What we know:
Number of strands: 7
Family: Belongs to the short-chain dehydrogenases/reductases (SDR) family.
Keywords: Oxidoreductase
Protein name: SDR family oxidoreductase
Helix content: 40-55%
GO molecular function, one term: oxidoreductase activity
CATH superfamily: NAD(P)-binding Rossmann-like Domain
Distance between the termini: 44 Å
Number of helices: 11
InterPro entries: NAD(P)-bd_dom_sf, Sc_DH/Rdtase_CS, SDR_fam
CATH topology: Rossmann fold
CATH architecture: 3-Layer(aba) Sandwich
Low-confidence stretches: 258-263
Amino acid sequence: MTLDLAGRGVVVTGAGRGIGAAYAKAFVAAGARVVVNDLDPATATSTADELGAVAIPGDASSEAGVAALVDAARAELGQIDVFCANAGVARGGTEAVDEKAWEVSWNVNVMAHVRAAKLLVPDWLERGGGTFVTTASAAGLLSIPGAAPYAVTKHAAVAFAEWLSMTYGAKGVRVHAVCPQGVRTDMLWSSGSAGRALMEPGAVDPDDVARDLVAAMEDGRFLVLPHPEVAEMYAHRAADPDRWLAGMRKMAAALPAVTMGTD
């Protein structure tokens, strides 16, 4: 298919910096009308001004925050054609980590997507089309040692994207799950020694992720894998889960504790 983004209304959450800012830049370059959302008003405004987009700061994870964003974006754009649920948090720790780390991870990494889809899908079904982009992680396909809230919620984000695609894909709703390994962003630098040991080798730039997303949209591919080797590892996991788990145990034993934020 030929992807025509000219004049399309696009919303990107967590777009003040990193992968989200790269998405926004790519969509603007393709002629789309873009809303830059970020919890930090200063970064949202700075990025939007730089790109010639529109800043709509706010919390894109709470029910009220998502509703406010969708309403404001529709008022600005007329309609939302592409929604990129990109905002995410990385919380480390085991099952014993504080409840707040689980709550924040669940709200930002999963429920933000559910809440956005609840508001967007009915309109897309009525119009016959729309695109939902989930920024997940290779951790959502392969897991990651030492960061239970992150691994579990990124798995859930991929699962929800799959569910959206299987339920509405034949009705014009396109869904893409972006699952990179290391990306050179603030999240990578703050992931602690273990996180960096796992993700920094072979890390790609945010612009590379955005390029691969646009290519996947052009091709109609669900999974977006900026690190192609993830596909092979994912296949090995499915083919022999016991062998895969044994390998993950060895990896976990060889790494220091992951020190992603736990607040």
